[in-house]
């Protein structure tokens, strides 16, 4: 009789515990914390007034932004490594995918602030090397996001009519940040073709972002008019509209500053004229939108708006208006723009401090690392 060995049934393994569970809901919106911190440093250093101790404080904030960038990059890498299903879900979510533009802007913001204030600590050579790496990576990622995210919106996302959001501006405004920070590198290039090529490339990115913004802004305003105010948690995103407005004003003024050493006459002087002719009306529209956004935020607070990560929308866009107003003060000589830049910077610092403290509290309690709750749909217009 043949004897067969008994087979033992393998025990059913328990489901493996997820790796890095606290990183599952760390989405690309966390790069906004880096952007908002870096702009406090660079905007403060470019104010057209001298405030004792401000530059030293900006240097400390730059160091903080640099550390935050490293931490968020590591957290996002862990998120992709341990939670690829959630990462793919983010890409296919029309409410989350646009935040991938924040990666580009975080890299660019830290690189630019390194050239503005970080060089006081690490020296010009190290600051230049850091900015070249971050600017190159940020620009490439930003250009890719400016195409890839709208492509996903057309092909994969299912966006309902009347649901346009200011968040849609995030991927297309990233090239405008490259246009505004590229002038820091123009003088570092050899005179001639290299400088002119970077200068005109910045203007090309300026046009790319500006025209894309002009396509989306009517959709956003039409959504507000026809559907009523945004859900409370999304109301701070109204400040995102200030981003392309302030950043484009900053870009034309910064580019005009470096044009004489990069391009010949009569274009060098013409670009300085363009900076004023473009910047003044756009800054006027930015102030109108700021007043509208503030009114809607006050309404949301009175209706019970509580803290969320969207509050970081109060920081970087306002910072771009600070640098835009500072550029106009430099080119027009008007004291009004100087005081506008100072007033906006005070608003920026207050918003950054409030958002930063509330974020720190949320991290300590774990509330910000939990699964986010979807905002309740708006079923009727309320006044």
How does this model look, in words?
With 383 residues, this protein is mostly helical. The protein contains eleven helices and no strands. The protein has helices at 31-45, 54-82, 84-91, 101-122, 124-155, 169-181, 193-227, 242-258, 267-302, 316-332, 335-365. Helix 1 crosses helix 4 and helix 7 (193-227) runs antiparallel to helix 8 (242-258). It is globular, with a radius of gyration of 23 Å. The relative contact order is 0.12.
Specify Rg, calculated over alpha carbons: 23 Å
What is the 3D shape?
globular
User: How many separate helices?
Assistant: 11
Which class do the helix and strand fractions yield?
Answer: mainly alpha
Percent helix among the residues?
Answer: 55-70%
Helix and strand element order: HHHHHHHHHHH
Distance between the termini: 89 Å
Number of strands: 0
Q: Mean pLDDT across all residues, rounded? A: 91
Strand content: under 5%
The biggest beta sheet is recorded as: none
Spans where pLDDT lies below 50 across 5 or more residues: 1-8, 375-383
């Amino acid at each position: 009789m043949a004897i067969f060995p008994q087979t033992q049934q393998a025990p059913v393994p328990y489901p493996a515990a997820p790796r890095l569970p606290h990183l599952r809901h760390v989405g690309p919106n966390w790069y906004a914390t880096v952007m908002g911190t870096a702009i406090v440093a660079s905007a403060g250093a470019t104010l057209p007034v001298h405030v004792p101790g401000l530059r030293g404080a900006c240097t400390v904030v730059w160091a903080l932004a640099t550390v935050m960038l490293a931490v968020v990059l590591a957290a996002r890498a862990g998120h992709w490594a341990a939670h690829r299903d959630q990462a793919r879900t983010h890409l296919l979510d029309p409410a989350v995918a646009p935040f991938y533009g924040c990666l580009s802007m975080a890299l660019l913001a830290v690189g630019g602030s390194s050239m503005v204030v970080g060089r006081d600590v690490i020296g010009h050579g190290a600051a230049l090397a850091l900015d070249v790496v971050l600017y190159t990576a940020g620009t490439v990622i930003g250009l890719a996001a400016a195409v890839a995210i709208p492509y996903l919106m057309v092909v994969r996302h299912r966006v309902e009519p009347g649901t346009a959001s200011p968040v849609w501006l995030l991927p297309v405004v990233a090239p405008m940040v490259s246009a505004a920070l590229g002038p820091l590198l123009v003088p570092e290039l050899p005179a001639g073709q290299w400088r002119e090529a970077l200068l005109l490339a910045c203007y090309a990115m300026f046009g790319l972002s500006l025209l894309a913004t002009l396509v989306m802004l009517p959709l956003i305003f039409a959504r507000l008019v026809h559907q009523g105010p945004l859900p409370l948690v999304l109301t701070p995103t109204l400040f995102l509209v200030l981003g392309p407005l302030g950043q484009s004003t900053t870009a034309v003024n910064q580019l005009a500053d470096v044009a004489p050493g990069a391009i010949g006459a009569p274009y060098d002087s013409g670009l300085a004229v363009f900076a004023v002719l473009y910047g003044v009306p756009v800054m006027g529209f930015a102030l109108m939108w700021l007043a509208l956004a503030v009114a809607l935020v006050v309404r949301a607070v009175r209706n019970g708006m509580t803290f969320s990560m969207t509050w970081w929308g109060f920081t970087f866009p306002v910072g771009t208006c600070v640098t835009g107003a500072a550029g106009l003060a430099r080119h027009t000589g008007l004291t009004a723009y100087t005081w506008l830049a100072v007033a906006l910077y005070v608003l920026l610092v207050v918003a950054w401090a409030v958002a930063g403290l509330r974020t720190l509290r949320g991290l300590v309690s774990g509330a910000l690392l939990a699964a986010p709750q979807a905002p309740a749909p708006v079923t009727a217009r309320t006044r």
